[in-house]
């Protein structure tokens, strides 16, 4: 595209989060783009190109606050990554992921400058499979069929964004699996914590389900590819109204991937060192812990070990990324080993 065909004003919700930070960093590679980072607690963290980034403390579930934001920044494309953690309350997930997405879509439609809307969905929104799944065959969870509140909220928002596609506002969905990379305090952070506690030789369940993983800088790149495609009517064909699976393109057993990360951190685990804990036993422990926290803290505190996280290990995820390759020009990370090593080095140095 020529320079005038590319968006120059992009709004990124959740732009201070893990994936959002990588998306902003990718957008900053284009000096013609200015970025509005939206968060409840924005973090000013970009030294290079900082004059191109503005920060806005906004509750996306407030129609008035969101409208005021659009009136101020007039975004040409919205990249909506904001979401509570999967362990948050059902009410918080509904408020942000469902109601917040509706409000953002409404303001985007009313803003004459906004042409594109990109939503970050999740593997949690999709009924899992162990065979390579295409977007056309994927089944979203529904308002009445879902394993947990997070899956429900992400699936409903995913469907809302696809349905909202129109000539006035072109929309698309990017579905990401487990993300890893530099600045990851969640998944990689948990692995580092396991190493430091001496728990990295433990395995929950039989490790028979494959999962997809995505290097965060590549997932960010996919968001920018979609944003640019939606902005222009000619390039939006085959992208607008669509959903795309994004991953490294190499499904792998969950604990095999984790042990590759441990090895990159200097803590390799040989097969004979693995100590497997039955999945059912961990599910029982997690359920008991949640019950105890509910009783003794009156629901004001939540345990670190959550039943939903244990259940997730029994679902798995297996996708085809051919649609993203063909329609977006997406290229998965070429050297996953190097990406893992870089991620673990950052975590060891910073966490």
Automatic annotation (TrEMBL):
Ranges that cross the membrane: none
Single annotated GO MF: oxidoreductase activity, acting on the CH-OH group of donors, NAD or NADP as acceptor
Pfam family, one: 3Beta_HSD
Gene Ontology terms: biological process: steroid biosynthetic process
All residue ranges annotated as the 3-beta hydroxysteroid dehydrogenase/isomerase domain in the record: 11-266
Domain of life of the source: Eukaryota
InterPro entries: 3Beta_OHSteriod_DH/Estase (IPR002225), NAD(P)-bd_dom_sf (IPR036291)
SUPFAM superfamilies in the cross-refs: NAD(P)-binding Rossmann-fold domains
Protein name, entry field: NAD(P)-binding protein
């Amino acid at each position: 595209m020529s320079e005038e065909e590319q968006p120059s004003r992009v709004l990124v919700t959740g732009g201070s989060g893990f994936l959002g930070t990588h998306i902003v960093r990718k957008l900053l590679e284009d000096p013609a783009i200015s970025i509005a980072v939206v968060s409840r607690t924005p973090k000013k963290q970009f030294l290079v190109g900082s004059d191109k980034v503005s920060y806005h403390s906004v509750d996306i579930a407030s129609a008035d606050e969101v409208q005021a934001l659009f009136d101020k920044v007039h975004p040409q494309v919205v990249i909506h990554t904001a979401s509570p953690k999967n362990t948050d309350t059902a009410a918080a997930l509904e408020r942000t992921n469902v109601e917040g997405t509706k409000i953002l879509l409404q303001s985007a439609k009313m803003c004459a400058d906004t042409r594109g809307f990109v939503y970050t969905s999740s593997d949690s929104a999709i009924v899992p499979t162990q065979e390579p799944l295409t977007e056309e065959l994927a089944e979203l969870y529904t308002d009445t069929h879902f394993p947990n509140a997070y899956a429900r909220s992400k699936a409903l928002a995913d469907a809302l964004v696809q349905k909202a596609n129109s000539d006035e506002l072109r929309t698309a969905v990017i579905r990401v699996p487990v993300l890893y990379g530099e600045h990851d305090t969640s998944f990689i952070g948990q692995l580092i914590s396991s190493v430091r506690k001496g728990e990295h030789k433990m395995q929950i369940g039989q490790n028979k389900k494959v999962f997809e993983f995505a290097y965060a800088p590549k997932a960010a790149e996919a968001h920018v590819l979609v944003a640019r495609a939606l902005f222009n009517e000619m390039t939006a064909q085959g992208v607008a109204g669509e959903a795309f699976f994004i991953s490294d393109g190499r499904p792998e057993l969950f604990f095999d991937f984790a042990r590759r990360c441990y090895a990159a951190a200097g803590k390799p685990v040989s097969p004979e060192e693995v100590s497997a804990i039955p999945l059912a036993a961990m599910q029982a422990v997690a359920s008991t812990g949640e019950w105890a926290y509910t009783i003794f803290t009156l629901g004001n505190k939540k345990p670190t070990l959550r039943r939903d996280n244990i259940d997730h290990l029994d679902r798995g995820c297996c996708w085809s990324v051919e649609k993203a390759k063909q329609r977006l020009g997406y290229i998965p990370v070429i050297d996953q080993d190097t990406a893992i090593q870089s991620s673990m080095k950052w975590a060891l140095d910073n966490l």
